[in-house]
């Protein structure tokens, strides 16, 4: 599974996903880095079949209006430390990846994973 981690999330999340054997890039790894427009992120996601991980509701809305990005892990964790975010991923990664194999949009909060579609 391939991931693209959005700008407002820590680069350490992409590092963590790579350490777990996944192909993961952060927007800082892209040519325009954190200035990469959402439309470009969507295009990369579709072309490379990457799951976008984002807190940005614009991606959530664009999925339902244009079916972009390819797949979305939408985070609704509020303000939390990077360590707390990585712990949340560590505790849920197996279920996240399992759900993303069969579903297009998953929402992750501090207390649950919700299949949107």
Question: Helix and strand succession?
Answer: EHEHEHEHEE
Spatial arrangement of strands, main beta sheet: 2-1-3-4-5-6
Largest pleated sheet? 6 strands, mixed
Low-confidence stretches: none
Radius of gyration, whole Å:
13 Å
- The proportion of residues in beta strands is 15-25%
Going by helix content, strand content and strand pairing, the class is alpha/beta
Span between termini: 18 Å
Number of strands: 6
- Number of continuous helical runs: 4
Annotate the secondary structure layout.
Layout: E1 2-5, H1 11-19, E2 23-26, H2 38-48, E3 50-54, H3 57-66, E4 71-76, H4 82-102, E5 105-109, E6 113-115
Parallel strand pairs: 1-2, 1-3, 3-4, 4-5
Antiparallel strand pairs: 5-6
Features of the shown structure:
4 helices, 6-stranded mixed sheet, alpha/beta, 117 residues, Rossmann fold
Describe this structure in words.
With 117 residues, the protein is an alpha/beta fold. It has a single domain (2-115), classed as Rossmann fold, CATH 3.40.50. The protein has helices at residues 11-19, 38-48, 57-66, 82-102, and strands at 2-5, 23-26, 50-54, 71-76, 105-109, 113-115. It is globular and about 30 Å long. The model has no long low-confidence stretch (mean pLDDT 97).
């Amino acid at each position: 599974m391939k991931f693209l981690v959005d700008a407002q999330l820590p680069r350490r999340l992409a590092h963590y996903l790579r350490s777990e054997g996944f192909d993961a890039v952060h927007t800082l790894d892209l040519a325009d880095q954190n200035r990469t427009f959402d439309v470009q992120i969507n295009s990369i996601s579709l072309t490379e079949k990457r799951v976008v991980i984002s807190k940005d509701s614009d991606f959530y809305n664009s999925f339902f209006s244009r079916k972009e990005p390819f797949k979305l892990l939408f985070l609704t964790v509020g303000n939390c430390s990077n360590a707390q975010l990585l712990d949340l991923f560590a505790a849920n990664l197996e279920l996240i990846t399992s759900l993303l194999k069969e579903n297009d949009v998953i929402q992750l909060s501090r207390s649950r994973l919700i299949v949107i579609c």
